[in-house]
Amino acid sequence: MELKLFQVDAFADRLFEGNPAAVVPLEAWLPDGVMQAIAMENNLSETAFFVREGEAYQLRWFTPEAEVDLCGHATLASAHVLFEHLGYSEPVIRFLSRSGELTVEKGEQGLTLDFPAIKPEPMEMLPEIVEGLGAEPVALLGAPDYVAVFESEEQVRGLEPDFAVLKRLDRRGVLATAPGKAFDFVSRCFFPKLQVDEDPVTGSAHCKLVPYWAERLGKTELIARQASKRGGTLLCELAGDRVRLTGRAVEYLRGTIWGDWD
Fold first, then answer.
1. Is the pTM of this model over 0.70?
2. Which residues are catalytic?
3. Rounded to whole angstroms, how far apart are CA atoms 114 and 137?
4. Same domain? 42 vs 84
């Protein structure tokens, strides 16, 4: 069997920026174990697989460790592949996923994801968060991930996490965030449970970060920077119960997977 493979830097204006994702278009679903093995072989934070269903596409995402419910950068990468390489000509792509219907719209500023907004709720500080991050946040919020709020961008950029400690936490990951200098807010995202110690740019994390910062800063349009080593910029908008995230994508490679799944 031959499968097309694309690797795309998402939320990037140039190569070697943003978050690399693998994209594998399919005619029909492969066994879950095969898709998981491909994701492990790719060894990127996410590999996306999609299958056309009527006028939409079923979309699934796998880390090297497990399938996940939502992934922003690999959705952006999948849309880029459809628009640029697979002849998709409409302005909006509909994806059907474990997180419901998601859309990606092509515009002058890039590709805009329409994702569900998730408001994180305040909670008591956990000693494991302080130990794992090596610094004490001023606040801790709970969502599908922990959100650790710091006073300054310098604190977030200077974090040196203990990933063995963070891996023992009972939630998927930890999002560290603070007000930015040149941006409305900055963040770093740690997911050692998924074999992704630090994710370069995390669209799904901004489903939680944007509602928090929109309320705190009193505005619905924000510019965010994920302050990983690679880094990436997201144009963000809170639109009711949805978050709109805009970024660009740059192709890194195209290839072929050769396999015998029998």
1. yes
2. 46
3. 30
4. yes
